[in-house]
Structure formats: C-alpha cells, structure tokens
C-alpha cells in the first residue's frame, strides 16, 4: 500500500547500525526536505528525549565529519522522541501506542538482531498497533537457511502482508549497484554483446582487506555464504543478468526473480570454502570453528541469454585489498595472420564494473604496441564520483523508499526463497574448509575454479 508515512518507529535506535547508518540517513533526508514525519526511537535502555538527541547529534556529526547544517539538525532533533523498554514487554508497547496517537500510517523499522523480528511483530499486533496501512521494515539476514526463512516469512506475513513487508538489502540501495541497470540498458554499445554469443564468463568479487576483528561472536554462526553471497552478491548478479524491465512498477523485481528461477542450485563440487589462518584465535570464535571466511563458487543461468556462460562468485575477508567488482569477460578474438606477420593479443577483453570503493567502470580495449606486431590491453576509465558527483548513501535511499511505500529496491519473498534454494546445498553438504594466509587471495584451489576461463581478475 502506497502513501507517505506519518511516523517512523526505529527499534534499536541506540545500537551500532542506527549510529552508523540510520541516524545519518535521516539527517540527509531532512536536509533534502524528504523527512516529514515524527521519528520515535525504541530501545532497551532508559534514555530521555534529550539524551537521544545528544546521541543523534554525535552520530550525525561523526558521519558528516563536523560539516553539519545546524538548522537541518535542529529540525531533525525536533522530530525525535524516545520510548524505552524491553521489546518483549507489553508495557513498552502501551507507551509506544501513546507516542503514536493520531498516526494512521506508521512504518516500523527493526534495526535489531533478526532473532527479534517475529517477537516484535507479534507484540505490535497484540498491542493493536498494526493497522491496514502500517509497514514493517526488517534487516538482513532473513533466516539462516531455506527452512528458517520460510518459517520467518510465515510468521511475519501473518501480521504484515507481503505488500507491507520491506526486507532491506543495503547493497540494492548503493548507487553504483543501481547504475548497473542504467549502464546496460541506456548505452547502445553494451546490450548487443551482453549475451552468450559474446561473453565468455562473468566474475563477481567482494574482497575485504580486514578480518573479523571484534565481531567474532556475530560472524562465527554466519559465515561468508550467509553474510554476503545469499543476499548481496546474488542480488548484484540478478541486475547484471536480467532482461530489460518494462511495464508497471513491478517490472524490475519480476526481472530479478526471472534470473533466480533460471538458476540451478549450486553444486558443492564447484565451490571452495576457506578460513584465514588466525581466525580461530579471534574472541567469540569457537576454537574448532568450521565457519568460512572465504567462499568461491561457480553458478549457471539456464536461459536463452546466458546458457553455457560460467558465472564465478567469490567473497572473502583478510584478502589483499578491499574491492567489489563485476567482470564481464568477452570472448577472445581470432588471432590475425597475414604473410609472415602474426598479431599476438595477450590478456583479456574485460568490462569491469566497480561497485565498492572508487565506483566506476573500466573498459579494456586493445591497441597496437608501437613498433611491434602485438596488441596490449588499455583501459577506458570512468570514476562515478569524479564525473557525476558523490552519490547518496544506501540507507538514505532505502528509508526514503520505505517511507513512501516504494518496494522496487526491496527483495520480495519469492526472490528471498529462490536465493536460499540456490545456496542451500552449500549449507547441507559444505565443502571442507581450506586454510589460507591473511593477505592472500584465498585457498589455492579457488584459483583453479576459474582457471579454464582465464583465471580471476584481481581488482585494480
């Protein structure tokens, strides 16, 4: 149901996610005149409205590096109120009902651990706070496997129907991720070659140059497959591979879903799991942990556009550099010969989309090396921030869409179910863990996975 929210209730407003992302995003929306409703923060601690405003001010000043518009900040702080109490305590919801008096279209945003989603939704229903227009926004991960995701969906949709349940995947809020679709379909040079006739392989790499550090207790039950592959990277793949959207507002979600429905579940024999040496010494990690901090796998899309094109995905921590890139590797051209001459063309013709740091695109073309009968790859580069300006932050866009009731960038249940189906074999029959050194590109066996297709391209 569309319509602009008249109240935003943020559960977990004193937590780390709210400090890093939610509160700065609300400031940005206020700066643009897009925040028109009251903001009610909910948390366990007994915090006064003044203390919440001080917390918000500190978070926003840190995010904006001190460059804060005082008038905008004052306007935002004037919208903030706080309701404290245990999320499982009915008395807290009575106080929340008083704070929401007169609201007809509230949005409840759960910046909380996923284990609390069903309990909070149930308490909202029991407190008669769920009307015919209210919306629920939840964070990832949505479940821990296919069975748990189905059960969580059953519980939540019994209270908030699908059209009023918004599941955040913050990668879809990243401007460079949204740019994938525009680069493909707004440029005549790309679409004619974006298929199995011209593409030899597709690679997606999400590399982090840091380890788990102080997040061991959170990360150890999760691992790389659940943390970034099932959600972030498969959603990115869908934008890379989908058909051109057309029709109503549901066009983009439908096209993304088509991609997943055409994908067989991953074969564990075509996957590698790794764990960096020293991970088990991290506080909060089990001494004999089998959790992967690295995963590489091969996928396929069985449709007319992509049949036979291998798709390689890898993600890992403690790698040489931080980067998130998509590589479209084109088919090799024939070697040219004439008379006694041969034009040797080493390397690969790659289109590289950078969606992490230094977002942009690089197109590798070949030019003749002066004085020699050999070509060499040279790149045509576009840095998005340099050419187009700094993009909005993901939560800025996603919270704005949730407040307006626009579901385009929020994965719906049918998509979530498909992505869990695709990775479930890796959870049921997990390949053995292979150890790798910090600062390397993961287990040596992962290099062989893409070896027949020119190997992995290392991020620049």
**Low-pLDDT residue spans:** none
- Major sheet: order of its strands? 16-15-14-11-7-10-9-8-17
Number of strands: 17
- Total number of distinct structural domains: 2
User: Could you give me the name of the CATH homologous superfamily of the largest domain?
Assistant: Dihydrodipicolinate Reductase, domain 2
- Rg, Å, rounded: 24 Å
The CATH topology of the largest domain corresponds to: Dihydrodipicolinate Reductase, domain 2
Described by strand count, sense and barrel closure, the largest sheet is:
9 strands, mixed
**How does the overall form come out from the CA principal axes?**
globular
In whole angstroms, how far apart are the ends? 44 Å
Helix content: 25-40%
pLDDT averaged residue by residue: 91
Q: Label the structural class.
A: alpha/beta
- Counted by DSSP, the helix tally is 14
